[in-house]
């Protein structure tokens, strides 16, 4: 039986490959994930071509908001603040070092490897005659009796060589020896096998040899690596595909299933539900009641000491992702009311506005310097952003109870909050002129993202509202949407920390398609996150003229086919802002399902009756169908000849009447 030995990898042949494999397994997916995240950030930053609307106003929790925002998204301490980047730098440096070790280390040939062709110095395709000829020559050359006086070492070397020559010859000619060689790789049968333990040489030899280092190395491989893999797998199993914890998803689903339809849903209801999220508990080590208290404090603009305020803002910063998950789950139940209330609750938490008792002035409370609802005067009948931009600075100061010097800044921020104006919305099927039954349709919307200060309708050219159908647009109707810039949250709320992690959930509008008949969702909730914000900077005149106005294209893909029965189906298309108050828009939308238009029969592809003397004609005669007789064929031939003669008679006539008319 072959003997198996385990030795330390003293020649450094095993451990570099083992280590570099482990590094690659960890570094490659981490790098891909990190690069994708950085790319999405940079592309978002590059495409947001509108200036940031800065404000001199500082909320009571400004320092804490800046601290939390800066640690996530400002880029401060770029190298040492980003743990993932630091890990990648160290990891890839180690990867390159191990690669260098592999490249510069010479591999030592295994003494147990037996190659008869190399020993006899012949080609592997040599014939038996050639093998015998070479064997005789080498036997005479290395036979111990044929050599003169040699030293003991030289004799031993010659004897060893002679034995190898004999084994090589037998391995290629003797049946039994050849069978051992083919089966075990050696003419003597199974050989001892040595495995190198993947421990670097410096751990078992030299000045660095230490039981502690060996223990650390083994702990990394036997304990740390399995722990990381197990933790990753547990995380995968404990979260949904949208990144929501399964316990949180279960709590949301349970609420939807068991909720009393007669019970009204408001912002406090959403906050109570969100407070039960496992993500918030694990991030803060707080109970659901304590989390709910912090969220209600944010809603009512209640501020705490620095430590507790940071804790509150941390909880609030995680809410948009949870709201997004709640909306996804509610959409599967077609619960439009819960979706709308959840989105509204997110806006109220971002702007720190409690809608109870101030719904008529909530749009004003999101403006800088308007810290309390008691500031807003009831004497001035202005409640919306659009109306506020029409009054003077003095009237603005009187309206919101601020110094006149800050009124211009309030006007500027109010004018920079984007609102939507829909120019055209219709159901479309690529390549079709009408919406046909049981087809894959989408909603195509042409809209303007504009300022509340811009009044009236812009004179937009019809060309901007039409989309030419090309091969590319038919293949991918949504490519035109992806080519538009990413929307940015402008201006940012002074009470909410915008981070890299939550920015994707607070920019743009949620789009809901509901059935007018029962008010339920007709499809999943989508997001409008791409479009042009350049219209915000246009003057009223430039906006009205329409030449510089940029039209945004939005398309909502419908997951369900169109109804099977022709008719008119009424829907409501809603755009719900994810961050701002007063930026929502609802429009009615009618789907007119029609049968596809019939193609007129041009007679070009008519199939003639078969001839009576053909097989097809015989079969048609048996079925009682019409066939073409020999007389019919002669008539057709004569008719064709007449046509040819008539055509030849007119070949010399100039038919370019259009050119003659143009000359006249």
TrEMBL record:
Q: Give the start-end ranges of region Disordered.
A: 624-664
| Entry-linked InterPro entries | DnaJ_domain (IPR001623), Ig_E-set (IPR014756), J_dom_sf (IPR036869)
List, in alphabetical order, the GO biological process terms annotated in this UniProt record.
post-translational protein targeting to endoplasmic reticulum membrane; SRP-dependent cotranslational protein targeting to membrane
Q: What GO annotations for molecular function exist for this entry?
A: protein transmembrane transporter activity; RNA binding
The record, for SUPFAM superfamilies, names:
Chaperone J-domain, E set domains, Sec63 N-terminal domain-like
The yes or no answer to whether the keyword Coiled coil is present is no
Q: Which residues cross the membrane?
A: 15-36, 84-102, 208-233
- Keyword terms: Membrane, Transmembrane, Transmembrane helix
Recorded superkingdom: Eukaryota
Coiled-coil regions, chain positions: none
PROSITE patterns named among the record's database cross-references: DNAJ_2
One cellular component term from this protein's GO annotations in UniProt: Sec62/Sec63 complex
Compositional bias (Acidic residues) at which positions? 632-664
Which residues are in the J domain? Answer: 115-185
Record keyword Protease present: no
* SMART domains per UniProt: DnaJ
Q: Which PANTHER family match?
A: SEC63 DOMAIN-CONTAINING (PTHR24075), TRANSLOCATION PROTEIN SEC63 HOMOLOG (PTHR24075:SF0)
State what protein this is by name: BA75_02886T0
Q: What is the organism field in this record?
A: Komagataella pastoris
Q: What is the lineage of its organism?
A: Eukaryota, Fungi, Dikarya, Ascomycota, Saccharomycotina
- The gene it comes from is SEC63
């Amino acid at each position: 039986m072959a003997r198996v030995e385990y030795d330390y990898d003293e020649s450094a042949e095993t451990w570099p490959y083992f280590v570099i494999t482990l590094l690659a397994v960890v570094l490659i997916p981490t790098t891909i994930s990190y690069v994708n995240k950085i790319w999405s950030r940079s592309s978002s930053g590059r495409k947001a071509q509108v200036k940031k609307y800065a404000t001199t106003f500082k909320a009571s929790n400004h320092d804490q908001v800046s601290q939390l925002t800066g640690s996530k998204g400002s880029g401060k301490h770029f190298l040492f603040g980003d743990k993932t980047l630091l890990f990648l730098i160290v990891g890839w440096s180690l990867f390159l070092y191990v690669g260098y070790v592999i490249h510069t280390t010479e591999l030592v040939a295994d003494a147990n490897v037996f190659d008869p062709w190399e020993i006899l110095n012949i080609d592997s395709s040599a014939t038996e005659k050639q093998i015998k000829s070479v064997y005789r020559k080498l036997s005479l050359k290395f036979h111990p009796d044929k050599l003169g006086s040699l030293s003991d070492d030289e004799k031993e070397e010659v004897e060893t060589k002679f034995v190898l020559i004999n084994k090589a010859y037998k391995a290629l000619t003797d049946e039994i020896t050849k069978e051992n060689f083919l089966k075990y790789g050696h003419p003597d049968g199974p050989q001892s096998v040595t495995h190198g333990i993947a421990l670097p040489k410096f751990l078992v030899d030299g000045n660095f040899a230490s039981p502690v280092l060996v223990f650390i190395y083994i702990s990394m491989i036997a304990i740390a690596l399995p722990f990381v893999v197990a933790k990753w797998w547990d995380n995968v199993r404990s979260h949904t595909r949208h990144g929501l914890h399964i316990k949180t998803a279960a709590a949301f689903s349970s609420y939807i299933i068991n909720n009393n339809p007669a019970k009204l849903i408001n912002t406090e209801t959403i906050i109570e539900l969100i407070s039960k999220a496992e993500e918030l508990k694990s991030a803060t080590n707080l109970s659901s009641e304590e989390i709910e208290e912090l969220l209600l404090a944010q809603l009512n603009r209640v501020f705490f000491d620095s430590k507790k305020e940071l804790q509150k803002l941390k909880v609030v910063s995680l809410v948009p992702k949870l709201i997004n998950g709640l909306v996804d789950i509610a959409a599967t139940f077609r619960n439009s009311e819960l979706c709308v209330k959840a989105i509204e609750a997110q806006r109220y938490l971002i702007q720190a506005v409690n809608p109870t008792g101030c719904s008529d002035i909530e749009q004003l409370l999101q403006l800088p310097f308007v810290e309390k609802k008691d500031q807003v005067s009831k004497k001035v009948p202005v409640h919306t952003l659009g109306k506020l931009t029409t009054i003077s600075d003095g009237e603005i100061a009187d309206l919101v109870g601020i110094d006149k010097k800050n009124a211009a800044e309030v006007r500027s921020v109010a004018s920079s909050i984007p609102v939507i104006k829909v120019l055209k919305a219709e159901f479309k099927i690529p390549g079709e002129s009408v919406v046909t039954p049981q087809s894959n349709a989408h909603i195509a919307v042409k809209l303007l993202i504009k300022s509340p200060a811009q009044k009236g309708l812009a004179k937009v050219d019809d060309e901007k509202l039409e989309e030419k159908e090309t091969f590319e647009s038919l293949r991918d109707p949504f490519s035109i949407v992806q080519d538009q810039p990413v929307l940015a949250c402008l201006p940012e709320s002074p009470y909410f920390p915008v981070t890299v992690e939550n920015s994707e959930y607070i920019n743009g509008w949620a789009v809901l398609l509901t059935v007018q008949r029962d008010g339920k969702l007709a499809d999943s909730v989508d997001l409008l996150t791409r479009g042009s914000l350049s219209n915000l900077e246009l003057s009223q005149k430039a906006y009205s003229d329409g030449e510089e106005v940029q039209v945004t294209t939005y398309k909502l893909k419908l997951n369900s086919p169109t109804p099977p029965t022709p008719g008119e189906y009424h829907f409501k298309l809603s755009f719900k802002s994810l961050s701002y108050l007063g930026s929502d828009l609802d429009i009615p939308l009618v789907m007119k399902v029609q049968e596809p238009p019939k193609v007129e029969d041009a007679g070009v592809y008519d199939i003639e009756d078969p001839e009576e003397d053909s097989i097809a004609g015989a079969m048609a005669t048996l079925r009682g169908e019409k066939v073409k007789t020999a007389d019919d064929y002669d008539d057709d031939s004569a008719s064709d000849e007449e046509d040819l003669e008539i055509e030849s008679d007119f070949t010399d006539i100039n038919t370019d009447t259009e050119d003659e008319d143009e000359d006249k």
